[in-house]
Amino acid sequence: MTPDSCSSCRTELPPFALACPACGALIYADRLKALAASADVAAESGDLSESRKRLADMLRLLPAHSRQYATVSERIRDLTQRLEIPTNEGLSPSSDARPWWKRGAAGIVAVVVLLLGKLKFLLLGLTKAGTFLSMFAFFAVYWSTYGWPLALGIVLSIYIHEMGHVAMLRGLGIDAGAPLFIPGVGAFVMLRQQVDPLTDAKIGLAGPVWGLGAALAALGLYAATEAKIWFAIAQLTAFMNLFNLIPIWQLDGSRGLHALSRSQRWTLVAAIVLALILTEQRMLLIVGAIAVWRAVQREEGPGDTRVLATFAALVFALSLLARGVG
């Protein structure tokens, strides 16, 4: 999803923009760096097909008239020519006989480089004593039940979700506290001022958006390493964020729905029903039922198409990732 404004000059961005019309900055610079690093690692390990695939993904995020687009296109043509030359052994260089760390190097580097762009911000919350200590207590509770790998994955996923709220708050110039964990319950960010329904919806849905990113990162690590713990973390992360989309009480789904008009609420209900049919994720029965209840109420929000689209996209993506849970 295209950001609302340029991170460099704060110019408002048109939908589906790939570069800022004012300063020319690439909108998806962090993602492009990750893909480029992944392509380089794949090429160095001999997996030319994977390298070409990563470069092709880069083209979709680059303006067609840009210098970077021409450079990447040239690299793809070069790799295509090299792939057409048969090897003497007739074996693919990406054979499954390679160690997992070599097969997964490209994916791991892509995830690491992508996270490095946000690493400084993510580490910020850990400098707060309240966040760190409550996070450790949360981890200790889940460690005793699920073991440390899964417990650590859950804690970090929740932390990333909460930092999504903090990132949006900072972007909107709103003061807020660092995340605090409650063992056995979850975590929250204390908002220190009143906001309008639309602003509250943006803040609320930012958590599941970042949570979806955490789930996709875990899924990428599973694809790279074939370690099942990453798949479990991906599914649980998606399920927890889908739970947060239930439009009730102080959950993120309630904050998102609060900004929607009555007609948009019924559109969201339709999207939830479709997602339920396609993914068979039973959590959507609860999400949908409460969305229907909220849609028939007299109160309604100002309406916002971007909030509706974000909410619906999260429902589909998280339901698909969480199919094995719930």
Architecture overview:
The chain has 326 residues and is an all-alpha fold. It has helices at 29-44, 48-59, 67-83, 100-103, 105-126, 129-146, 148-171, 197-225, 228-243, 252-257, 262-279, 283-295, 305-321, and strands at residues 180-182, 186-188. The protein folds into two domains: 1-85, no CATH class; 100-321, no CATH class. The chain contains 13 helices and two strands, in the order αααααααββαααααα. A two-stranded antiparallel sheet has the order 1-2. Strand 1 (180-182) and strand 2 form a beta hairpin. Helix 2 (48-59) packs antiparallel against helix 3 (67-83). The radius of gyration is 21 Å and the shape is globular. The model is unreliable at 87-97 (pLDDT under 50).
In short:
By secondary structure, this protein is mainly α. It is 65% helix and 2% strand.
Annotate the secondary structure layout.
Elements: H1 29-44, H2 48-59, H3 67-83, H4 100-103, H5 105-126, H6 129-146, H7 148-171, E1 180-182, E2 186-188, H8 197-225, H9 228-243, H10 252-257, H11 262-279, H12 283-295, H13 305-321
Helix pairs in contact: 1-2, 1-5, 2-3, 5-8, 6-7, 7-8, 7-9, 8-9, 8-13, 9-13, 11-12, 11-13
